[in-house]
TrEMBL record:
<comment type="similarity">
    <text>Belongs to the transketolase family.</text>
</comment>
<dbReference type="InterPro" id="IPR005474">
    <property type="entry name" value="Transketolase_N"/>
</dbReference>
<keyword id="KW-0786">Thiamine pyrophosphate</keyword>
<dbReference type="GO" id="GO:0000287">
    <property type="term" value="F:magnesium ion binding"/>
</dbReference>
<protein>
    <submittedName>
        <fullName>Transketolase</fullName>
    </submittedName>
</protein>
<feature type="domain" description="Transketolase N-terminal">
    <location>
        <begin position="34"/>
        <end position="275"/>
    </location>
</feature>
<dbReference type="InterPro" id="IPR029061">
    <property type="entry name" value="THDP-binding"/>
</dbReference>
<dbReference type="Pfam" id="PF00456">
    <property type="entry name" value="Transketolase_N"/>
</dbReference>
Length: 293
């Protein structure tokens, strides 16, 4: 199991405090900068490894950054704190985005990112809870994260805990039937301590989601299962922050975050081939320049 980096964790606490105390537009800018730094780290990580899912990493990083730097009740130096919020990345193939975010928060040293997908590395192509602090459950086979998160929310209620469960799902992943069994259960049990966030970039491996198996009207589907639903811009950090921290009702919450696959890198944006294409060294250099703006 990797261990925390105390210096980075201390910097994370200071940045969280700065974000919390900042005026709205400054808060948005701080989160934007932090997300783009994670995007750059992710690109270099995938380039070194020669594998990864860069397009989905780029689309989900604004969500992850907002959660870890503005919302989640977690402690990188005490990742097993019993009353922590739970975060599950159901779309586990975008592990690179999660690793770059966890490293930036100090859950483990940022130098470990250089080992991504190497033999015997803790940073596998899909997150492993027995190797990486901050990972609550192993994910990779799609359709598992929401059912596990429902179980976590039920456990939290039974324990009388204030912890909240957040789970991020891919939109193509919602073609797996297990998600809808879990959604029905969460609605039936009125699990107000559960928030599901859909990374709605409308692309999956090989095609658009609506060409493969149409999901829309996705908001109405979740409402029919007994969820409160919000549709937001998944790249507007302030909008994300507001919806994640808003007073909750008595039902589970679904946030449909409209995103762009490859966000932040012009030649990757909304291009299906970047689902798992690996950028060249020249492309990484071009992308890093764009992300630094």
């Amino acid at each position: 199991m990797l261990v925390a980096d105390p210096r980075t964790a201390a910097a994370w606490r200071l940045l969280r405090q700065e974000i919390a105390e900042a005026a709205p537009e400054r808060r948005r800018e701080l989160l934007r900068q932090r997300a783009n730094q994670s995007r750059a780290a992710d690109l270099h990580m995938i380039g070194r490894a020669g594998l990864g899912h860069v397009g989905g990493d780029m689309s989900v990083l604004d969500i992850l950054t907002t959660l870890f730097f503005g919302v989640l009740r977690v402690d990188p130096e005490h990742p097993e704190w019993a009353d922590r919020d739970r975060f599950v990345l159901s779309k586990g193939h975008t592990a690179g985005a999660l690793y770059s975010t966890l490293a930036a928060a100090g859950f483990f040293p940022q130098e470990e990112l250089a080992t991504f997908a190497a033999p015997l590395s803790a940073l596998n192509g899909h997150p492993n809870r027995v190797k990486v602090p901050g990972v609550e459950t192993n994910t990779g086979p799609l359709g598992h994260g929401l059912p596990v998160s429902v179980g976590m929310a039920v456990a939290g209620r039974l324990a009388g805990s204030e912890r909240h469960v957040f789970v991020v799902l891919g939109d193509g992943e919602l073609q797996e039937g297990s998600n809808w069994e879990a959604a029905m259960t969460a609605g039936h049990r009125r699990l107000a301590n559960l928030t599901a966030i859909v990374d709605r970039n409308r692309l999956q491996q090989g095609a658009r989601t609506e060409e493969t198996s149409a999901l829309d009207p996705l908001d109405d589907k979740f409402r029919a299962f007994g969820w409160d639903v919000h549709v937001v811009d998944g790249h507007d950090h302030l909008e994300l922050l507001n919806v994640f921290t808003a007073p909750r009702g008595e039902r589970p919450t679904c946030v449909i975050a409209n995103t762009i696959k490859g966000r932040g890198v012009s030649f990757m944006e909304d291009r299906v081939e970047w689902h798992h294409k690996v950028p060249s060294s020249e492309q990484i250099s071009l992308a890093t320049v764009e992300l630094a703006r």
